[in-house]
Design goal:
α10 packs across α12, α20 crosses α21 and α21 packs across α22. Helices cover about 30% and strands about 15% of the residues. β1 and β2 form a beta hairpin. It is globular and about 90 Å long. The protein is built from 23 helices and 27 strands. By secondary structure, it is α+β, with helices and mostly antiparallel strands.
Length: about 800
């Protein structure tokens, strides 16, 4: 022990006590998904507070020279079969009574109980120091190490802070209608029992409107139970906003729903509002389950294994390399599904998994904040099979059956999710997100972090050719842009079961007129081929400004592939906008074939004998003696956008950057740039300074330059794009892909020497690196609503 005491005293200066704001990683290894529950436990550096599994702690010690680590191991306690734990002597486990997480009466976050063992380990000889051993150490060592241990154990780990530890689904706000609610003096009095819907005579899930006292049934639930939507229809017809659920009224309150606010609300004048219709709140008793109780019951069922069975079949658990599951971190299924698909792509496997040793060796001092390290860690975790093993079933009796549990260990990508979502207004939260949006966000991060060496996102990159033909002059314009995803529309009028849908609509209208429950609606069957046909159909541009006729006219636009990627990602646009601009999801079934031939969608460029539209000269640069004239914008399109509530400058930019091609194109631009920091900033002409007093030679962001250069363009081309778009990266990328023809003809010069006559300049300047395949023999993968087609 004297030798251990001497070693501990020698490293005492490196032992730190965590302070507020320090990042403590005591639940997950920085290089793997090892945790205190893993074999060998987790070693937490007592200086940097980084966690390392048993296979990586030696690496960290060798690189940094740190010697003192807090070793944490957790062992799962055996679970008794008795649900109430009566045999164990423990108090019975209470069922949830509150729609909350991590709160009294709510759902328990920590479903498994662990026994924890903690000690200090000194490297390189792995000398162990327990709490009991510290009592025999010198006072200075005992105090310093004890404070560090206590601080590490008490601190919230980074991953723990990122979890949904506490959430209260019962927090309700006072309705804006409650204080001034108008109630009709219609003499209606509601009896204390015996209620039924006034339309269909349903006797459960009944709601009384607090304006006119009408009693009607509630909404139909997803499984067909509930009501027939008559209370909702009554609101839609009358606009009376508040309703109370009969059977939930007690002296303590009741369930009140605001149809206008679309949420459960509080009504501070509920007793007064009920009394208007003869209901004495103080004498009422609860006879029906509240909405909270119903939601709790649904949430308890959602986690059951039966819910995820396929047609009731018994599924056989699989383990091994490439069969690793990812845990849901609270609405993180969009991330899990995208990453599972990406690591089936050889490019991502070779970039991050095959080179993992090199990546880990080159990792910075804090690998938890390094993109390449965390992506490699996730990829290796998914493909190696180390975390795809049956979880052992713990038991007190070592001779008991060692039959493994049905679930696998899996991985929880908390560190990865925190890194890729950092600073993003949506992906940094625990809210539900769109898989397609996350895929593009992740590809953007890959692009920024692959400025040298192989770029796996090239597997998805392709060129789109757009051909616009002026109908008055019959002259054409060709442009190319880079994309990663094809969005296919859903032509509902092309359903193969149109007669069935029409019959179902007729029956629904009859049921609604008679007040009876409508029959289940069939799902529209849409062939995948008609979605592709809709993509290739010419689009009519009614307000196209033609440089040939120097005015607005009609044009047609067709979209084709200028190249085919190795893997084509297709998004089915199942959301549409109604007449009220409210998004609606289409209930459709699309039959995707096993193989596709997309070669008919390849663009062929300028056709023989076809004349091109004259190129319009770009606006001149601002100089002291030359004033830039304002661009000619379509005032009617600007006005239409402003009437929708968008800022004037944003509307002007939308019309400008879409070349006066009409309201649809401008609206798409607005929807795609609403999150831009300069969305409402004044329109700045290309080549002009972004602020008064600056010049066209203002400094360009080196990071933005490097990002564009990594996509295959020269530094001069990147500089020109950034200067043309006020040094805004996203705008520059859009600009450079819409001006490929201009870039190919520009003279590239470096170091003051023109290269126009050099040998290298005879070849066209490098464009975006894209691969080109045949466009046929594709295999489909389903990724949370996004279809990935891999060319084989």
């Amino acid at each position: 022990m004297a030798e251990v005491s001497e070693v501990l005293m020698s490293v005492l200066s490196t032992v730190r006590v965590p302070r507020p704001g320090d990042r403590v990683h005591k639940d997950e290894c920085a290089f793997s998904f090892a945790s205190p529950e893993s074999e060998g436990g987790l070693y937490v550096c007592m200086n940097s507070f980084l966690g390392f599994g048993s296979q990586f702690v030696e690496r960290h010690h060798a690189r940094t020279g740190q010697k003192a680590y807090l070793h944490i191991t957790r062992t799962r306690k055996a679970q008794k079969e008795d649900d109430n734990n009566s045999a164990s002597g423990d108090p019975p486990k209470k069922k949830p009574t509150r729609l909350a997480i991590g709160m009294e009466g709510g759902f328990d976050v920590e479903q498994d109980q662990y026994e924890e063992d903690v000690k200090v380990v000194l490297f390189p000889d792995r000398q162990e120091v327990t709490s009991e051993d510290l009592s025999t150490m010198p006072d200075v060592a005992r105090e310093r190490v004890s404070l560090s241990m206590a601080g590490l154990l008490a601190a919230d780990s980074v991953s723990h802070a990122l979890q949904v530890q506490q959430w209260d689904g019962e927090v309700r706000q006072e309705s804006k209608h409650a204080a001034e609610l108008k109630q009709l003096d219609n003499g209606l009095k509601i009896p204390p029992s015996g209620w039924k819907c006034e339309v269909c005579e349903l006797q459960e899930n009944l709601w009384m409107n607090l304006t006119d006292g009408k009693v009607m049934c509630g909404r139909r639930y997803f499984d067909g139970s509930g009501g027939n939507n008559h209370a909702l229809l009554h609101f839609q017809q009358t606009g009376y906003p508040l309703a109370v659920k009969l059977g939930t009224i007690t002296p303590d309150g009741a369930d009140v729903y605001s149809y206008d606010e679309d949420d459960m609300v509080l009504d501070s004048k509920l007793a007064e509002h009920l009394s208007h219709f003869g209901i004495d709140m103080m004498t009422m008793e609860k006879t029906e389950r509240t909405m909270t109780e119903l939601e709790i019951a649904v949430n308890q069922r959602v986690g059951e294994w039966e819910v995820i069975q396929e047609s009731g079949a018994t599924l056989r658990p699989l383990w091994g390399p490439g069969l690793t599951g990812m845990k849901n971190l609270g609405n993180s299924c969009y991330l899990n599904s995208v990453m599972q698909v990406l690591f089936t792509i050889p490019d991502f496997q070779e970039k991050y998994v095959s080179n993992i040793e090199k990546i880990l060796d080159e990792a910075p001092s804090d690998p938890t904040q390094d993109f390449k390290t965390q992506v490699a860690k996730l990829g290796y975790g998914l493909l190696s099979g180390e975390y795809s093993k049956p979880a052992p079933d713990p038991g007190d009796d070592p001779n008991a059956s060692s039959e493994p549990r049905g679930d696998q260990v899996g991985i929880a990508p908390r560190m990865f999710k925190a890194l890729v979502g950092r600073g993003h207004p949506e992906f940094s939260t625990n809210r539900q997100q769109d898989a397609q949006e996350f895929l593009l966000h992740f590809i953007n991060m890959v692009e920024r972090n692959c400025r040298s060496g192989p770029n796996p996102s090239e597997a998805f990159r392709f060129l789109v050719e757009e051909r616009i033909v002026c109908q008055q002059s019959q002259k054409a314009k060709y442009t190319q842009r880079v994309d990663y995803i094809v969005q296919l529309p859903v032509p509902m009028d092309q359903a193969t079961n149109t007669e069935e849908l029409q019959e179902a609509e007729r029956l629904r209208e009859e049921a609604e007129a008679s007040g009876s429950p409508p029959p289940p609606a069939p799902r529209a069957q849409i062939p995948f081929s008609v979605c592709l046909d809709a993509l290739s159909e010419p689009e009519t541009l009614t307000d196209f400004w033609s440089s040939a006729v120097q005015g607005k006219t009609t044009a047609t636009k067709t979209t084709r592939f200028a190249s085919f990627p190795d893997y084509l990602v297709i998004q089915i646009k199942k959301f549409t906008f109604g007449l009220d601009w409210v998004p609606k999801k289409l209930d459709v079934s699309i039959d995707v074939p096993d193989t596709l031939d997309l070669s008919a969608l390849r663009g062929i460029g300028q056709q023989p004998g076809e004349e091109l539209l004259p190129e319009v000269a770009p606006p001149p640069l601002m100089t002291p003696d030359v004033e830039v004239k304002a661009p000619v914008l379509d005032d009617s399109t600007v006005s239409q956008l402003c009437e929708m509530g968008f800022p004037l400058e944003a509307c002007r930019k939308a019309v400008y950057y879409t070349g006066n091609t009409g309201i649809d194109a401008a609206m798409n631009w607005v929807m795609g740039h609403m999150d831009d920091p300069d969305f409402s900033a004044p329109l700045v002409l290309p080549g002009c300074s972004s602020a008064p007093g600056t010049t066209p030679t203002e400094s360009i962001s080196e990071e933005h330059l490097a990002t564009i250069v990594s996509m295959g363009f020269s530094r001069d081309q990147a500089t020109r794009a950034l200067r043309a778009t006020s040094n805004i990266l996203e705008r520059a990328v859009d600009w450079i892909f819409s001006h490929l023809d201009d870039l190919e003809s520009m003279e590239v010069s470096e170091g003051g020497r023109s290269e126009a006559g050099s040998e290298a300049s005879r070849d066209p300047p490098p464009g975006p690196r894209v691969r080109d395949g045949q466009g046929s023999e594709c295999v489909g993968y389903l990724c949370y609503g996004v279809l990935t087609l891999g060319t084989v």
